[in-house]
Amino acid sequence: MKLLKIDSLHKTFKKHKVSAVDGASFSIFKGEVLGLVGESGCGKTTLAKLILRLIDADKGSIFYKDKDLLKISHSDMRKTRKSLQIIFQDPYASLDPRMRIGEVIEEVYDIHKNVTGREKKNKAIELLETVGLGEVYLQRLSSELSGGERQRVGIARALATDPEFIICDEPVSSLDISIQAQILNLLIDLQKRKNLTYLFISHDLGVIGSICDRVMVMQSGKFVESGSCETIFRNPKHEYTKTLLKSALLS
Ligand SMILES: Nc1ncnc2c1ncn2[C@@H]1O[C@H](COP(=O)(O)OP(=O)(O)OP(=O)(O)O)[C@@H](O)[C@H]1O
Ligand SMILES: [Mg+2]
């Protein structure tokens, strides 16, 4: 089943006349892990933000099941947003250092107004356990956590609304190499257990190859090729993909 169907999505940042996303069309199937790879500045994060309507697209359509996210009302989008989440690149920038972890997670429930008091705390504890942290973390400040622990909190927060689809935007690239594997394993485990669908953004082909079913290669706002990881890795057609593969083999 197609969970998301994106057609001819465009975004130009007028101030600098940057065509950040230039006609993106693709589908994501339920339960799939779809990789998105490309050099810095090619438009990956912009595409992620467009899909979640964190920024407005110039044109195109984004169907989530039978709803065009660019056409539905704000209140409908607010409800839909619970099902669509994102884990950001930088766990340092995405968490307020003055907030306690309990507050960071409970805040999600304040926005969605569907749980109260004690229930919120219990849900926060349950989520912290799901991501390999315990109840003791409720009172910790995010500034007191390591990068890996912060990214676990970022994952817990994304899971709080029980989403169906998560965009992982370079979730491990700011982490130490030994922690990267732990966080990747947690993400894979969650995906399998909860039958989640991921759009997994990375510039690391090793990471993409180890967890994705299919991959799309992006360059300057456009998809230059896409297909199963096996096909793309074994027989890259585009010069840019070949260069990426060569540099991955050298690193
Ligand atoms: N708010 C903005 N205003 C103007 N230009 C922007 C804005 N956000 C992004 N851009 C530009 O759009 C292009 C794509 O940026 P984007 O952040 O999507 O790249 P990226 O592929 O995620 O890069 P990275 O791998 O470094 O995270 C870049 O040229 C960037 O400078
Ligand atoms: Mg980015």
Give a verbal description of the structure:
This protein is an alpha/beta fold. It has one domain: Rossmann fold (3-Layer(aba) Sandwich), CATH 3.40.50.300. Helices cover 39% and strands 26% of the residues. The strands form 2 sheets. It has a 6-stranded mixed β-sheet with strand order 6-7-8-3-9-10, with helices on both faces. Strands 2-1-4-5 form a 4-stranded antiparallel β-sheet, covered by helices on one side. A hairpin with a 2-residue loop joins strand 9 and strand 10. The mean pLDDT is 92. The structure holds adenosine-5'-triphosphate and magnesium ion (MG). Magnesium ion (MG) binds next to helix 1.
List the helices and strands and how they pair.
Layout: E1 2-13, E2 18-29, E3 33-38, H1 44-51, E4 59-64, E5 67-68, H2 74-81, E6 84-87, H3 101-112, H4 117-130, H5 147-159, E7 165-169, H6 177-194, E8 197-202, H7 205-211, E9 214-219, E10 222-228, H8 229-234, H9 239-250
Parallel strand pairs: 3-8, 3-9, 6-7, 7-8
Antiparallel strand pairs: 1-2, 1-4, 4-5, 9-10
Helix pairs in contact: 3-4, 4-5, 5-6
Bound molecules: adenosine-5'-triphosphate and magnesium ion.
Magnesium ion binds at residues 44-45, 89, 169.
Given helix and strand content, the structural type is: alpha/beta
Task: Name the ligand types.
Answer: adenosine-5'-triphosphate, magnesium ion
Discrete helix count = 9
What's the overall geometry? globular
Order of helices and strands: EEEHEEHEHHHEHEHEEHH
Overall mean confidence score, pLDDT: 92
CATH fourth-tier homologous superfamily: P-loop containing nucleotide triphosphate hydrolases
Largest sheet: 6 strands, mixed
State the name of the first-level CATH class: Alpha Beta
Whole-number tally of structural domains: 1
Report the portion of residues in β strands.
Answer: 25-35%
Secondary structure: helix percent: 25-40%
In CATH, the architecture is 3-Layer(aba) Sandwich
**Biggest sheet: strands side by side, in what order?**
6-7-8-3-9-10
Q: What is the count of β-strands?
A: 10
